[in-house]
Write a structure and sequence with these properties.
- The protein is α/β, with parallel strands linked by helices.
- It folds into two domains: 171 residues, Alpha-Beta Complex (Aspartate Aminotransferase, domain 1), CATH 3.90.1150.10; 246 residues, Type I PLP-dependent aspartate aminotransferase-like (Major domain) (Aspartate Aminotransferase, domain 2, 3-Layer(aba) Sandwich).
- Helices cover 41% and strands 14% of the residues.
- It has 16 helices and 14 strands.
- A seven-stranded mixed beta sheet has the order 4-10-9-8-7-5-6, sandwiched between helices. A four-stranded mixed beta sheet has the order 1-2-3-13. Strands 11-12-14 form a three-stranded antiparallel beta sheet.
- β7, α9 and β8 form a beta-alpha-beta unit.
- α5 packs parallel to α13.
């Protein structure tokens, strides 16, 4: 009797996604590796999405997915929230770029001042166009304010793709995660292990540190308080990078949730309701380094110059206002976190049931999966897992998920079922 070979995961994927395959073939002749964002690169090839609504999206081949990519974390209200769609379409009809000040930017900034702890009580706001721009500006502000050059960051913490942010992203920690970074830039950055108080003290002790910049995910209030106090004791600015955690952990972000307030905070993603936009907020004493004065020496030698064609553009401002007016209600964050908790429990049960060593963690509405004994390297495992989940109608962001306030029980059930099927497929392929 002739045995029929079972199709591999890639072969099954290819049969289901011919239109995405064709689009990817075209894209490879246009973009390096066929993608416009590193996070969208996967193997064998990415799906091409045609439209989305709520917690779901659809690809060019007509397949429907529960979406946990979430606009790279920007969509806590899901795709095409009616209030945001209405605000954006109305504004687009009035104008997308005035090359002038407008009322919406004022209202958007006032909402940030109202919601974010470090922007309250006289704090100020500056809008940029992305999270990368926000962290770059925050570092520049700290350097100008202190007159120092060095920035301390934490190993593995991602702060965008600008030159300074690439240092300390991956082992070896003293090397940037990208080619093309000048050594002079590398020498202005120090990367220390997270949760290592002694290492942070050592990094600060030379007295040349302008700022400490840190992500808040997974860190305790006690540790963050220690970081704040150490930074201030050394005359160093503390920057919380809340590009991901802002407006997600609580209306005021992880700083509200963890009850520690920094000098400056960087935002993007949820800030602009899924449209391009970023910002810096916090100490008015520091942010006033951006102000204009009738003083030639100030204008040329002490002020931080800051143009930016799309800073607080009217469409992003409209989206940001519509989004922040909704997410300032803590019920939004509680709903997303509760759904994530249910999902975590379901995925853990499947791991245990299948006897696969691993864990499902994360805080509030940020979820991540890890496998303790994979049989392939981390990069390949991430690609295989995402493909396996897509075959079950679920799209994860690698091994992570951004859970929104509009994901529901039906989404959770489908996700748990897809996860179980993915575990079986990955084990059969020899990945687990």
């Amino acid at each position: 009797m002739v045995q029929t070979r079972q199709a591999t995961l890639d072969e099954q994927f290819a049969l289901r996604h011919p239109k995405s395959a064709a689009l990817f073939a075209e894209a490879q002749r246009v973009f390096p590796s066929g993608v416009t964002h590193d996070g969208r690169y996967t193997q064998p090839y990415p799906i091409y999405v045609t439209h989305a609504r709520g917690s779901r999206k659809w690809d060019a081949d007509g397949h429907e997915y529960v979406d946990y990519f979430g606009g790279h974390g920007a969509l806590i209200l899901g795709h095409c929230h009616p209030a945001i769609v209405s605000a954006v379409t109305a504004q687009a009809a009035r104008g997308s770029h005035f090359g002038a000040n407008h009322e919406l930017e004022v209202r958007w900034g006032q909402l940030v001042q109202k919601i974010v702890p470090c922007a309250q009580n006289g704090g100020m706001v500056k809008f940029v166009s992305s999270g990368t721009e926000a962290t770059l500006m925050a570092m520049r502000l700290a350097r100008a304010y202190t007159g120092r050059d060095t920035i301390v960051k934490f190993r593995g913490h991602f702060h965008g793709w600008h030159d300074y942010a690439t240092v300390g992203m991956s082992d070896p920690w003293d090397q940037p995660s990208s080619a093309g970074i000048p050594r002079a830039v590398q020498n202005t950055m120090r990367a220390v292990p997270v949760n290592d108080v002694a290492a942070l003290e050592q990094a600060l002790s030379p007295g040349d540190v302008a700022a400490v910049i840190i992500l808040l995910n997974g860190l305790s209030t006690e540790y963050l308080t220690q970081v704040r106090d150490m930074a201030h004791r050394h005359g160093t600015v503390l920057i919380f990078d809340e590009v991901i955690t802002g407006f997600r952990y609580a209306p005021g972000g992880a700083q509200e949730y963890k009850r520690v307030t920094p000098d400056l905070t960087t935002h993007a993603k949820i800030l602009a309701g899924g449209y391009p936009g970023g910002g810096i907020c916090g100490s008015s004493e520091i942010l006033r380094l951006l102000e204009h004065r009738d003083d030639a020496a100030w204008q040329r030698g002490r002020r931080i110059a800051h143009p930016g064609t799309f800073n607080a553009n009217p469409v992003s401002s409209a989206a940001g206002i519509a989004c922040l007016e909704i997410v300032q209600d803590p019920a939004i964050q509680r709903k997303a976190a509760a759904t994530a908790d249910t999902l975590r429990a379901g995925l853990r049960e499947k791991l245990e049931r299948r006897g696969i060593a691993g864990s499902v963690g994360g805080e509030v509405s940020l979820l991540n999966v890890s496998f303790s004994e994979p049989k392939v390297d981390a990069r390949r495992l991430t690609f295989r897992f995402r493909t396996a989940m897509q075959m079950g109608g679920v799209d994860f962001s690698g091994l992570s998920a951004f859970v929104s306030a509009v994901h529901d029980d039906r989404d959770v059930e489908q996700t748990v079922r897809a996860f179980d099927q993915a575990l079986v497929a990955l084990r059969e392929e020899g990945a687990l």
